[in-house]
Design brief:
CATH superfamily: Histone deacetylase domain
Number of helices: 10
Number of domains: 1
Number of strands: 7
Strand content: 5-15%
Oligomer: single chain
């Protein structure tokens, strides 16, 4: 399994003051990965304007570029998502993008919820533009519905998106499993991986073991449906003390 990570995701400060921009947010994740796994870490490059404009309007791009600090880190996150997707497709293996800022609330011409560019949409549209995929399934297990994912790529009939809505953990996991069982003709499986449904985070629903279960489901169904091609990119998650533990639990199931 590969981890896509750039040190600037930790070090770069001053682009925003929201919880997702906290410099301490990525630290426990990468610390836990380095201490508890032997995953190879891959360093990405920023996304190009061409990559970004597949998902966003010229007007939105110009708004973000108005702040040089923000544009750099947001395009680096989008580039991290692209690299993660390419590893998953080309190598037929699991890849996880430990990136910031998140992206699933960014639509073509607007953004909110700590997001600026839609990392998932940019990565998927890059795979489509390169004629690598035609169909995909995205599991968005963040606490908050990824409206940007839906607005940009959810309108494509070949891309299916699930934002589980069951209010308790057993039903939540069953909803994911039943959706996977219904899938056919999928070229790649991806996750907008938010960890704020955690029992001690804002959502108060999922356990550390549940994230491992979600990772295992994604692995098993990717092997069945698309030769193991699967990737995940970081979205939410704000209980920093256990964030790294939960990410690694997911990765151990997903690997």
């Amino acid at each position: 399994m590969k981890i896509v990570f750039h040190q600037d995701y930790v070090d770069y400060a001053g682009y925003a003051s929201d919880p997702a921009a906290d410099r301490g947010r990525i630290k426990p994740i990468i610390k836990e990965i380095r201490e508890k796994t032997d995953y190879e870490i891959i360093t990405p490059e920023p996304a190009t304007e061409e990559d970004i404009l597949r998902a966003h309007s010229e007007r939105h791009l110009k708004r973000i570029k108005h702040n040089n600090n923000l544009y750099y880190i947001a395009s680096l996150a989008a580039g991290g998502a692209i690299k993660t997707a390419e590893i998953a497709y080309d190598n037929k293996e699991a890849a996880f993008g430990v990136i910031r800022p998140p992206g699933h609330h960014a639509s073509a011409d607007s953004c909110w919820g700590f997001c600026f560019f839609n990392n998932m949409s940019i990565s998927m549209l890059k795979l489509i533009a390169d004629k690598k995929i035609e169909t995909a399934f995205i599991l968005d297990f963040d606490l908050h519905t990824g409206d940007g994912n839906i607005n940009i790529i959810g309108q494509n009939p070949n891309i299916k998106i699930l934002n589980p809505r069951s209010p308790e953990r057993v039903g939540y996991l069953e909803e994911i499993d039943e959706t996977f069982k219904s899938l056919k003709n999928i070229d790649i499986i991806a996750a907008s991986a938010g960890f704020d449904e955690y029992v001690l985070d804002w959502g108060g629903t999922l356990t550390t073991e549940d994230y491992n279960t979600i990772g295992k489901m994604m692995k098993e169904y990717s092997l069945e449906l698309c030769e193991g091609r699967r990737y995940a990119i970081l979205e939410g998650g704000y209980y920093f003390e256990h964030l790294g533990i939960n990410v690694v639990s997911f990765c151990k199931g997903f690997e």
